[in-house]
Design a protein that fits this description.
about 850 residues; alpha+beta; 6 domains; five-stranded mixed beta sheet; about 40% helix; DNA binding
Length: about 850
């Protein structure tokens, strides 16, 4: 029969039949949008439809709808089953019609069909049963539309006599049975003219009652003896009793009062993202680059503080509140900002716990490698880690479900939606004209439209609720606020606008130029257009490429490291910019940072000079270093300070006895014994030049330094121990793995294989076995039999065409079976295939296959 002669396909009777009518591209789109359906791969389309209708899968799908698509699903839940396209349009656009709704409805309905939440033609639209149960109204769970049950549902338990009384009072002719009476009352409420005439007779107090219930919730409480305004409504069925003391506004009445609308405010279009101000792109990029450099300096300062072992790890994991406060003071930032930098270093794999008995945080070996990279590449690593991390620093200090405080680096900070929200916020910024900074409220409103906050039942906000600027308690709104502030601190944005390197980081297209330059940074620039769909989150390979592109754009904007400082007579050195790595490392040991900013001021103190001498340098080395890297002569006070500290350095020697002090000058030991501050060290003289102590060597060193001496530690052999600031490193550690929000989105290769397997399995389950050349089985359930050459040729052809086949197989025990397989490879005397009977990939020896047979088409 030709294509033209075939009769028109009958309307699908189930979701499985509707899926069977889809092409491969449509099935792949379904599996991509709902990846939980592919884990594991369904055996056929019937199993796929069953899985698509489970409660967990439907809830997940509803949670990923935008607001108008969700409103469309909610309208279908209160419409007829099945409903026509015209009925659905009337529920959304109202009696007067809304052009925006009419234009947007095909797209929303297409999205519901693509996700298999709605099936059937425009004349018979059906919402998946589970979705209808989730969204339909009930006394326990009012509908998000605010509508109540229908007249038929509300009168189900009412006596026939009472129904006839209502019909008579409403001015309708009496009927012989309750069913026809309910139908007559329903027709009255659905007739605009007769309904208007009935409401015109209503007392004003009764109309006020209806107005309070019309937009929901539709339930109200009444006494045993209702007031006259309620009695008038009850007698005419405009309110119907559902339980003792409870009445409900029937759905048909509410829709008439709403002019046919299921929602108070349909939202067919996303709210625009408005620009609160604009700046020149060069200013944005320069500001963001300055923040990026500050981010690098802050992370280095944090880990330099923890070189010799950072704070202890709490027994429950994480950083104590006291240690977080100390870190904030050291970085000169607030505690929430300090938590962000700590978590960023952890996400980038630069910081971890050392895993020892006295577990502490310290830099990882990856930190040393990171420090040697160019500044732009170091920033790209931090920014990439931030984009992908599910750990959320903004939660630090809050409470978990068990009322435990959430600590930095501790458990409970993962939020699987964080990467998606970060990417989406940056994509919204990328859709604005270049240099435009959005208002936070418009960004939150847009996100709330794209993914409505959960209402605890269907995953979406009720349509009767105002959209506003985002619910402050909504987790996604909180995440979005944190993204905006974190992106500014990290240097992805500058003055609130997305920078060029930030745009490259997410793989966004070239920026759109504004039509006119604004007068100043305070000008308003509303964006009324609907931007193009944002780029999807990048794969790991694409993200690496984007990070490299971002680093290339950022590199020219970062200041070049300097090889000199300016020494001053007040024992300070001024670094007019970032310093080269060797110079910064040595100067960081030789002096203390006094102030930071565009220029860093270092101060030389006896303690800092002693610290440099402890690393094995001599006074001559320090003089030579300063002379080589100073653009000004070495001031005399600084030279005297170095010589004075060096003269006294190592004069005392501390070793392990528990501890001891030895010195060639016994007068110095007499001075120590006479000092009252030495009482806690437990010192006693063993020899004219040796003192023993009950304190450990580290405590003894610290105590003597506090008394103004400059002791040096020595080994058991009597050699001076040289200490280095970077001695403490953790074993190699991998960065924390992000916690996914659900099953990963399958790639194209997996989708193609899955669709092929589902099609083959569905064909195997629905089609009869067709005869094959040489098949001598004789029909029935006997094994297909072909020659070895025919078997090999047919299997090789099936590998190329992707077709499924029947095979007869005899196992090692001699048991025979018929199986449906989709061959993948034939080589070495074996065939590897997806076995639809066993639902797995198997390998069969060719000599155990009795024969092959093709699957017949359904029309046979």
């Amino acid at each position: 029969m030709s294509t033209e002669e075939k009769p028109a396909a009958a309307a699908p009777r189930s979701l499985a039949e509707a899926l069977r009518e889809r092409d491969d591209a449509s099935l792949a789109a379904l599996l991509r949008s709902r990846p939980d359906l592919i884990t594991p791969v369904p055996t056929d389309l019937t199993q796929l439809a069953t899985r698509a209708g489970t409660r967990a899968s439907v809830v997940r799908a509803l949670e990923r709808l935008d607001r108008f698509a969700l409103q469309t699903a909610q309208a279908l839940a209160v419409a007829s089953d099945p409903a026509s396209y015209e009925e659905l349009l009337g529920l959304l656009a109202g009696d007067d019609g809304d052009p925006a709704v009419s234009a947007a409805l095909p797209h929303a309905l297409g999205a519901l069909r693509e996700q298999a939440l709605v099936w059937g033609g425009d004349d018979r639209l059906r919402l998946v049963r589970t979705a209808r149960e989730l969204l339909a109204p009930s006394p326990q769970h009012p509908s998000p539309t605010g509508l109540g049950p229908t007249v038929r549902e509300a009168t189900a338990g009412m006596s026939p006599g009472r129904i006839q009384e209502i019909v008579a009072t409403a001015g309708l002719p009496s009927t012989h049975d309750a069913v026809s009476a309910v139908a007559s009352l329903t027709d009255l409420f659905n007739d605009p003219e007769r309904m208007s005439a009935l409401l015109d007779e209503a007392p004003s107090e009764s109309v006020e009652v209806l107005e309070r219930l019309v937009w929901g919730p539709p339930y109200g409480q009444v006494t045993a003896d209702p007031a006259a305004r309620l009695r008038w409504l009850l007698d005419r069925g405009l309110l119907l009793p559902t339980a003792p003391g409870t009445v409900v506004l029937p759905r048909e009445v509410a829709l008439r009062l709403r002019a046919g609308r299921a929602h108070r405010r349909p939202e067919p279009l996303p709210p625009p993202v408005e620009a609160a101000g604009t700046h020149r792109p060069q200013v944005v990029d320069a500001t963001a680059a300055g923040q990026a450099y500050t981010a690098l300096a802050t992370v280095e300062e944090l880990l330099r503080d923890w070189h010799e072992g950072g704070p202890a790890v709490l027994r429950s994991g994480g950083l104590s509140v006291r240690d977080l406060k100390r870190t904030a003071v050291a970085l000169d930032v607030t505690e929430p900002v300090a938590a962000f930098w700590v978590e960023l270093a952890y996400a980038a794999g630069l910081l971890a716990s050392d895993g020892e008995a006295d577990e502490r945080y310290a830099a990882t070996p990856a930190y040393d490698e990171w420090r040697e990279r160019p500044a732009a590449e170091r920033w790209a690593r931090l920014a990439t880690a931030w984009l992908a991390a599910t750990r959320t620093p903004g939660l630090v200090g809050g409470r978990d479900a068990k009322d435990h405080t959430l600590s930095a680096l501790g458990p409970g900070l993962d939020r699987s939606a964080a990467p998606e929200v970060r990417h989406r916020v940056l994509a919204l910024l990328a859709a604005l004209p270049e240099g435009a900074a959005p208002s936070a409220g418009s960004v939150l409103a847009r996100l709330a439209w794209e993914r409505p906050p959960r209402d605890g039942r269907s995953g979406g906000r009720g349509a009767a609720e105002p959209a506003g600027g985002g619910d402050a308690d909504d987790p996604r709104s909180r995440l979005a606020r944190w993204v905006l502030s974190e992106a500014e601190m990290l240097g992805v944005t500058g003055r609130g606008a997305l920078s060029a390197h930030g745009r490259a980081l997410i793989g966004a297209p070239a920026p759109r130029r504004p039509e006119a330059e604004p007068e100043g940074p305070g000008d308003k620039l509303p964006v009324h257009h609907r931007p193009a769909p944002p780029p999807a989150p990048l794969s790991p390979g694409e993200q690496a490429t984007a990070a490299a592109a971002a680093a290339r754009l950022l590199a020219p904007l970062l200041p070049q490291p300097l090889d000199h400082v300016l020494l001053q007579a007040d024992l300070t050195a001024v670094a007019p910019g970032p310093l080269q790595r060797p110079l910064a490392d040595v100067l960081g040991v030789l002096a203390d940072v006094e102030s930071k900013g565009g220029a860093t001021v270092y101060r030389f103190t006896p303690g800092s000079v002693r610290r440099a001498l402890d690393t094995g340098r001599t006074a001559a080395d320090l003089h030579a270093f300063l002379a080589a890297h100073s653009r000004t002569p070495v001031p005399q006070p600084l030279a005297y300070l170095i010589d004075d500290v060096a003269r006294r350095h190592g004069h005392l020697r501390v070793g392990a006895a528990s501890a001891y002090v030895r010195c060639d000058d016994d007068a110095v030991l007499d001075e120590i014994l006479a000092d009252r501050r030495a009482a806690g060290l437990g010192l006693r003289r063993l020899a004219p030049t040796v003192l023993a102590a009950t304190a450990d060597p580290a405590g003894l060193l610290e105590g003597l330094r506090a008394m103004g001496f400059a002791p040096a530690a020595e080994s058991a052999e009597g050699d001076v121990l040289i200490t280095r600031a970077d001695a403490r490193r953790t074993p190699p550690r991998t960065p924390p793995e992000p916690v996914p929000e659900g099953p990963p989105v399958p790639d194209d290769t997996l989708l193609t294989a899955a669709v092929r397997a589902i099609r083959a399995g569905d064909l195997a389950s629905t089609a009869p076995r067709g005869p094959a050349a040489g098949d001598r089985a004789g029909g029935g359930g006997e094994l297909p039999r072909t020659t070895a050459a025919e078997t090999l040729a047919t299997l090789q052809a099936a590998v190329l065409t992707g077709e499924a086949l029947w095979i007869g197989h005899v196992n090692a025990e001699g048991a025979a079976s018929r199986r449906v397989i989709a061959p993948v490879r034939v080589e070495g005397g074996f065939v590897t295939a997806y076995d639809h009977t066993a639902d797995e990939v198997r390998t069969y020896p060719l000599h155990r296959i009795t024969g092959v047979a093709e699957l017949a088409d359904e029309d046979g």
